[in-house]
Specification:
Number of helices: 18
Order of helices and strands: EHEHHEHHEEHEEHHHHHHHEEHHHHH
Largest sheet: 3 strands, antiparallel
Helix content: 40-55%
Number of domains: 2
Structural class: mainly alpha
CATH superfamily of the largest domain: Fumarase/aspartase (Central domain)
CATH topology of the largest domain: Fumarase C, Chain A, domain 2
CATH architecture of the largest domain: Up-down Bundle
Radius of gyration: 26 Å
Low-confidence stretches: none
Length: 506
């Protein structure tokens, strides 16, 4: 791996995070002296605070509702260790290795903003974990999103100290073992360092960063499904005429319509064809539904970029005046908003695909597509049911996505002795978004399989536009057509895997 993301000199984006997660992009800290000097000055301000008499949250006070407890100077080191120890209560499945990489590079970028009072060597240790691909085993459950993702991030603080478990060299082992094998010395975290590592939005921001890039790819593929459905239904390419989207110039619908036209291999101003003048909404209005998702994703990228490059812990340290600034930058409302908004519009996009599937399974006679996409001919046809159960499956997937599309942020709970009396639930929103994306991938695969089946059933493969024909051939290379009734689960899995690995020309 030769490409490196230079933390401290490069403005980090969601694309960077996604590439680091996939191990396509390495990470290193900048060598710029000015940045390193700032990190050192910020740390020195913390050390001055440790020696002084002024209360600084989490340095010489207890945490959260225990802020009134003053901690003697001799115990500030114990305070740092105790923070990650008592937050070691995460449960549930572990974040994947890819997600852990995203979480680490996100936290590194946020700490590199220079407001956190953390030592340079601690930042170097986080970078070393990424370099050697030693990833903390982080349970998914336990964050309410403020004060940031405390419990899941405690697993990073613990690993830096040589404790808990990690993914390393394809297996789970103790952090102590993995650090020793990589010749990385465990750290003794000093005053405020555990708080700086834990007290931020890194989990939710990392998951949302990965989701944005994934959703961008989904929308492009979605447009191909719409184009294919339009062709099979003998629909009107004129519904995607560029002049319609000039008349009401929202950028998302215009972009989506251009992708549909590309799939149809038609001109920017396609002619009105024979047959029905207007197609059902799931085809005709697809740009206006899914185009909103495109615009939301663009806005989300800008919001995430601010979060990735901003200081999101508490207190922040003004290295010029050595003043501790007590506030709420750890609050994950922006990431909760992004995740809740994206997942809502992703569910809408899924429903468009499911409605298009119903159109194919129950189309008019003029399309030449048999009901339920059954290819069997003759008397035995009555004993076959084709894609009937697949249609039920699609309905189930969309219903589940719609249920999870409810905003997590409205489920705020007062907690931690009513100190955290309003919380954003950003990590929950981000995990909901990931779950809906997984459902959406299955729905897209079903749409492609149904379109290929309808193409075969109507004997229209040779008349497909070139982009759709290439997609049809790629699907048929891995998934044969359904003749007699058969199981479809394995075909769906194959199609999903091909889509996720980029093997389909979409």
């Amino acid at each position: 791996m030769t490409d490196k993301l230079r933390i401290g000199e490069t403005r980090v984006t969601h694309t960077h995070v996604a590439r680091v997660a996939r191990a396509e992009l390495g990470v290193s800290l900048t060598e710029h002296a000015s940045w390193r000097e700032r990190i050192n000055r910020s740390r020195e301000a913390v050390e001055v605070g440790v020696r002084g008499s002024q209360p600084i949250y989490g340095v010489n006070t207890g945490f959260g509702e225990s802020v009134a407890n003053r901690v003697a100077k001799d115990f500030t080191g114990d305070l740092a260790t105790n923070l990650f120890e008592f937050h070691g209560c995460g449960i549930g499945p572990l974040f994947s290795v890819e997600e852990s990489r995203a979480i680490l590079v996100t936290r590194l970028a946020q700490l590199a903003a220079g407001w956190s009072g953390i030592r340079l060597e601690t930042l170097q240790a986080i970078a070393a974990l990424l370099e050697h691909d030693i990833m903390p085993c982080i349970p998914e459950l336990g964050s309410v999103g403020a004060s940031g993702d405390l419990t899941p991030m405690s697993y990073l603080a613990a690993v830096l100290s040589g404790k808990r478990e990690v993914f390393a060299r394809g297996r789970v082992c103790s952090a102590e073992e993995a650090l020793a094998a990589a010749h990385i010395a465990p750290l003794t975290l000093r005053a405020k360092e555990a708080l700086s590592i834990m007290n931020g939005t890194s989990v939710m921001t990392a998951l949302v960063s990965m989701a944005i890039e994934r959703a961008d790819a989904f929308v492009r593929s979605h447009a191909m499904a719409t184009a294919w459905t339009s062709v099979l239904m003998r629909g009107q390419p004129a519904h995607f005429d560029e002049r319609l989207f000039t008349a009401k110039p929202h950028p998302g619908p215009a972009r989506y319509a251009s992708w549909v036209r590309a799939g149809l291999a038609c001109e920017p101003r396609p002619r009105l064809g024979t047959g029905k003048v207007q197609d059902p909404y799931s085809v005709r209005c697809a740009p206006h539904v899914v185009g909103v998702l495109l615009e939301v994703l663009e806005q989300a990228g800008a919001t995430v970029e601010i979060e990735l490059n901003g200081a999101c812990d508490n207190p922040l340290i003004d290295e010029e005046t050595q003043v501790a600034l007590h506030g709420g930058n750890f609050y994950g409302s922006h990431m909760a908003h992004v995740a809740d908004t994206v997942k809502l519009h992703l569910a809408h996009a899924m429903e468009i695909l499911e409605r298009q599937l119903v159109l194919l399974c129950h189309s008019s006679a003029t399309s030449g597509i048999p009901t339920n996409l059954i290819r069997v001919q003759g008397p035995e046809k009555s004993s076959h049911h084709g894609f009937k159960a697949v249609e039920i499956l699609a309905s189930s997937l969309v219903a589940e996505a719609m249920k999870q599309a409810a905003p997590a942020s409205v489920f705020s709970r007062s907690t931690e002795g009513h100190n955290q009396d309003k919380v954003p639930m950003g990590a929950i929103a981000a995990r909901d978004l990931r779950a809906i994306q997984n459902l959406a991938d299955y729905m897209l695969a079903i749409s492609f399989l149904a379109a290929a089946q309808a193409t075969d059933a109507a004997n229209r493969a040779d008349s497909l536009p070139a982009p759709l024909h290439a997609l049809y051939k790629a699907i048929r290379a891995i998934c044969p057509a359904t003749d007699e009734d058969q199981r479809h689960d394995e075909l769906i899995k194959r199609c999903v895997e091909s889509y996720r690995t980029g093997a389909l020309p979409v």
